[in-house]
UniProtKB/TrEMBL annotation:
Residues 47-499 form the Major facilitator superfamily (MFS) profile domain. CDD domains: MFS_MMR_MDR_like. Keywords: Cell membrane, Membrane, Transmembrane, Transmembrane helix, Transport. One of its GO terms (molecular function) is transmembrane transporter activity. It holds the Pfam family MFS_1. It is a multi-pass membrane protein. It is found in: Cell membrane. GO terms for cellular component: plasma membrane. InterPro entries: MFS, MFS_dom, MFS_trans_sf, Sugar_transporter_CS. This is EmrB/QacA subfamily drug resistance transporter. The chain crosses the membrane at residues 45-69, 81-101, 113-130, 142-161, 173-193, 199-223, 235-253, 259-281, 302-323, 329-354, 366-386, 398-420, 432-455, 475-495.
Length: 507
């Protein structure tokens, strides 16, 4: 289940929590002056509708495929490792190229980038919906991630310049955030409906409807805008960070067959080397993709690591929840969608409450309590059995996970922007979203390792096929619980300072 966080406009990511954060303030300062006069444009609310629709497409595409994967795996004959890459390809490419996509949109033209991103996303969706084999589907998902990395920051930047300040701006961001928060739930329910009553392919083909509406209406209601100055694109930074994470994730996938294999070691070493090259490039280029000064602040670094842990949970482990509900408990796809959406509903319920409590509790307490609460939920889920019931073994865990995620989301964006210069606000905010996507990519590979090991142990013990599946999924949930506990420890160690220092906008 993919969530996004409220991000700063110029380079960025996509919002979930509709609150007035430092990102929003930085966005106001960064909006070009010449756009203010267009604030009263009567087309602005149509523009908001198009941009919100775009956000819905990007968010729901992270979850809609989860429900469809069991049928897709059966029809295309894909292995479990290949199945994971259907989700990983989207998250990996999206997260790695998000910062570059934001800079391209700012300097090439936000409307132009939006339109290209939309058309490309639609073409990739068509390719995936008509895929005749596993490789086609994985490539299509990667292409979706590529165009989403261009589309998402362009849409948010367009929202910023269309509503540069005032009450209308707050309303626009609230609508945008509400769509982001509900997009994961829409994806689960729509994916279940389409898979059950049509085909898994329509979970990709349905994007063509959204794309057609957005392109047709957007061509009339969106206005072009660009950032001042000349663009310098850190292409080599984008290549090394994408290749580095890609090799690491692929190396972890190969590790299922042995850690000491030459190809496993080669991929892991190559990935680490490329990531090292990325750090070197970022410290030497004039316009880095990720200014390293953003990572030197301990509080911000802690927020990024916690977000990566959430990505591992929401993108990685929830895929296995969909499999447990359908393959072990025997739920139909639509029922599985309703059963999964409980977690998102719990998140949406607790976010408004804890947003009000943030100035009282402070961000550190929430960033420790939230992951620990979610970890308790995953620990509960780790005890699932082949003959267990949803109400006893699954539902309580999902409620705990959803509540914990909501508590964690509330302070994350504020901490990601503590002490950030206005010029770095977009990059810092986009890094939070990128951390989630990349954390999800690595998490999927790590969880696959846990699932394989548990399945081998259960098979050796003579367990039935359903018991083997339940055992492997339980191992995934237990591993996710450990990741969340580590996230809480990181927050406890890294997030230091008074509430006034950590929450300047609430002081």
């Amino acid at each position: 289940m993919t969530h996004s966080t409220l991000s700063a406009p110029d380079t960025g990511s996509v919002p979930t929590v509709p609150q007035r954060s430092p990102a929003t303030l930085a966005a106001s300062a960064a909006a070009p002056e010449h756009v203010t006069a267009r604030g009263a444009d009567p087309r602005r609310w149509w523009a908001l509708a198009v941009i919100a629709l775009t956000q819905l497409v990007v968010v729901l595409d992270g979850t809609i495929v989860n429900i469809a994967l069991p049928q897709a795996q059966l029809e295309l004959g894909m292995s479990d490792a290949q199945r994971g890459w259907v989700v990983t390809a989207y998250a990996l490419v999206f997260g790695a190229l998000l910062l570059l996509g934001g800079r391209i949109a700012d300097f090439w033209g936000r409307k132009r980038a939006f339109m290209l991103g939309m058309v490309g996303f639609g073409a990739a969706s068509l390719y995936g919906g008509l895929a005749q084999n596993t490789v086609d589907l994985i490539i299509a998902r990667g292409l979706q991630g590529l165009f989403a990395a261009l589309l998402a920051p362009a849409a948010l930047a367009l929202l910023t310049v269309t509503f540069p300040s005032g009450r209308e701006r707050n309303t626009a961001f609230a609508v945008y955030g509400a769509v982001a928060g509900s997009g994961a739930a829409v994806g689960l329910l729509l994916g279940g409906f389409l898979t059950e009553f049509t085909s898994w392919r329509w979970c990709l083909l349905v994007n063509l409807v959204f794309v057609a509406v957005a392109v047709l209406v957007g061509s009339f209601v969106l206005s072009e805008s660009r950032a001042p100055g000349r663009a310098r694109f850190d292409v080599w930074g984008a290549v090394t960070v994408t290749g580095g994470f890609g090799f690491v994730v692929y190396g972890l996938t190969l590790a299922e067959s042995g850690w000491l294999r030459v190809d496993t070691i080669g991929c892991l070493v190559g990935g680490v080397a490329l990531l090292g090259a990325f750090v070197w490039i970022e410290s030497h280029v004039a316009e880095p993709l990720l200014p390293l000064r953003i990572l030197r602040n301990r509080v911000r670094a802690g927020a990024f690591l916690v977000q990566a842990a959430l990505g591992a949970l929401l993108i990685g482990s929830t895929m296995y929840l969909a499999f447990h509900l359908q393959l072990v408990l025997g739920f139909a796809p639509l029922v599985a969608g309703f059963a999964s959406v409980v977690m998102t509903a719990a998140t949406l319920v607790v976010v408004p409450l804890f947003t009000r409590l943030l100035p009282v509790w402070g961000p550190r307490a929430m960033l420790v309590a939230g992951p620990l609460g979610a970890a308790c939920g995953m620990f509960w889920l780790s005890f699932i059995t082949a003959d267990g019931s949803y109400a006893v073994q699954v539902l309580p865990g999902l409620l705990l996970v959803g509540a914990g995620v909501g508590i964690t989301f509330v302070p994350l964006q504020n901490l990601a922007l503590v002490g950030v210069a206005p010029a770095d606000a977009g990059a810092a905010s986009a890094t939070v979203n990128a951390a989630m996507q990349l954390g999800g990519s690595i998490g999927l590979s790590a969880f696959a390792l846990a699932a394989t090991g548990a399945a081998q142990t259960a098979t050796a013990a003579g367990a039935s096929p359903a018991e083997v599946l339940a055992s492997s999924y339980g191992a995934v949930f237990f591993t996710a619980a450990i990741v969340l506990v580590l996230g809480a420890i990181v927050a406890f160690v890294c997030v230091r300072g008074s509430k006034e220092e950590l929450l300047p906008s609430h002081a």
